[in-house]
UniProtKB/TrEMBL annotation:
It comes from the Bacteria. Belongs to the ApbE family. Its cofactor is Mg(2+). Gene3D superfamilies: ApbE-like domains. It comes from Eikenella glucosivorans. SUPFAM superfamilies: ApbE-like (SSF143631). It holds the Pfam family ApbE. This is FAD:protein FMN transferase. Its EC number is 2.7.1.180. GO terms for molecular function: transferase activity.
Length: 315
């Protein structure tokens, strides 16, 4: 086994190969992840996304093809009816991030003003010229809920093109399983569903899965407390405040990691009421504060509960 761990995108990433890296593919993978990070980061003013944000209300900006393709998918997902996912949420997430650092809850008036700058209809994309334009000053994009999935799909493509038949890709908890597990007689991978608020690697359940992607949106990932309340990093585009729907986490299992990332935010947003929504055919595991676990029926034969305190509700 050949395990490579590296820091990128502010998180720990692990690529596992099950054969010697004779083609030296791992350095190319790091290079790819790093180059995507440089294009997408909001922490350096010279990234493509920051150039777009800096030109909000001023002028369209040309971006690379791979960034444009990501913007198209993020835009389409944001425009779906009732979507809890919104890539134009930068004005709001910036406000809440400042709060997380300084412990001051933004004023309602600040939230309302920022919310007006988060309408995905106000983003203009031109496929012919690969240009994007945020049409109002103060708008900004936040690709934090989709970038890792998109990059993970890119890593899988690189590995497949190099003829690698089996691997796991873990970009900060966004998991892609490639090929069959060499460790299990059934060829399926074992993937844990993280126990909310517990130490990393403590599982509430374990799934046996084929070559799919597994992505979780969880409120326990990043949060801060103020006045006895907990404010986490998933923002409801409808209200401008962190989601308050009783959900702790939504795990989505789908063939494609970009899709899984988008759906994990959308399904988290739908909460218990939307747990049974069959609009999308992706498998899901939702955990709420009442220790209920909503699990897709199709997944149940491959699902093993590890904590008997949960009530499993098939959906
Ligand atoms: P993590 O980064 O912990 O894996 P997610 O993939 O769920 O978490 O992405 C969360 C990030 O996405 C937030 O930190 C924020 O930047 C952004 N975000 C927050 N709320 C939304 C939303 N409703 N739609 C799209 N992006 C969001
Ligand atoms: Mg995510």
């Amino acid at each position: 086994m050949n395990v490579a761990t590296f820091i990128a995108m502010g998180t720990v990433n692990t690529i596992t190969l099950f054969e010697p890296d004779t083609q030296n593919i791992l350095p190319r993978v790091f290079e790819y992840v790093k180059s995507m990070e440089q294009k997408l980061t909001v922490h350096h003013s010279d990234s493509e996304i920051m150039r777009l944000n800096a030109n909000a209300g001023i002028a369209p900006v040309a971006v690379s093809e791979e960034v444009f393709a990501l913007l198209l998918r993020a835009h389409a997902a944001s425009l779906e009816e009732g979507s809890g996912f919104n890539f134009a949420l930068g004005a709001l997430t910036r406000l809440w991030r400042a709060y997380q650092k300084q412990g001051i809850v933004p004023f309602d008036t600040q939230i309302a003003a920022a919310r007006a700058l988060c309408d995905p209809h106000l983003v203009w994309l031109d496929a012919g010229s690969c240009r994007a334009f945020l049409t109002q000053p103060g708008m900004s994009l936040d690709l934090g809920a989709i970038a890792k999935g998109y990059i993970a799909d890119g890593v899988k493509r690189l590995l497949a093109e190099a003829g690698i038949e089996r691997a796991t890709i873990d970009l900060g908890g966004n998991v892609v399983l490639h090929g069959q597990s060499p460790k299990q007689a059934d060829g399926l991978w074992r993937v844990g569903i993280q126990q909310p608020y517990a130490a990393k690697g403590e599982y509430a359940a374990v799934c046996r899965l084929p070559a799919v992607s597994v992505v979780t949106s969880g409120v326990y990932e990043r949060y801060a407390e103020a006045g006895g309340r907990q404010y986490h990093h998933l923002i409801n585009p409808q209200t401008g405040y962190p989601f308050d729907n009783g959900m702790l986490g939504a795990t989505v299992i789908a063939p494609d990691s970009t899709e899984a990332e988008i759906r994990s935010t959308q399904i988290f947003a739908q909460g218990a009421a939307g747990a049974a929504d069959s609009r999308s055919d992706v498998w899901r595991v939702l955990i709420d504060k009442e220790k209920r676990m909503f699990v897709s029926r199709a997944l149940l034969p491959f699902f093993e509960l590890k904590d008997a305190a949960y009530q499993v509700i098939p959906v």
